[in-house]
Design goal:
The protein is mainly beta. It contains 1 helix and 5 strands; from the N terminus they run βββαββ. Strand 4 and strand 5 form a beta hairpin.
Length: about 70
């Protein structure tokens, strides 16, 4: 997938949380990347970079479906 709209923020706990949009020919999905995964893959998480994602699908009634990357 192609990454875009990357936003990185530091939580009160000091941990990093990144969010971005993953796009391919079929559509787009929001992605949340937690501290451990972000620190490990930091150099790959850049605008317009093509990556393979691994994570859990989060489907909640009050939010859009997204991919959660924790490791």
């Amino acid at each position: 997938v192609l990454l875009s709209s990357i936003k990185v923020r530091t939580l009160k706990s000091g941990k990093i949380l990144a969010s971005c949009l993953a796009e391919d020919k079929t559509g787009a999905i929001n992605v949340t990347i937690f501290d451990t995964a972000y620190n490990f893959y930091r150099q790959l998480i850049t605008e317009e970079n093509i990556v393979i994602l691994s994570g859990k699908i989060s489907e909640q009634e009050d939010r859009e479906t997204e991919i959660i990357c924790e490791k």
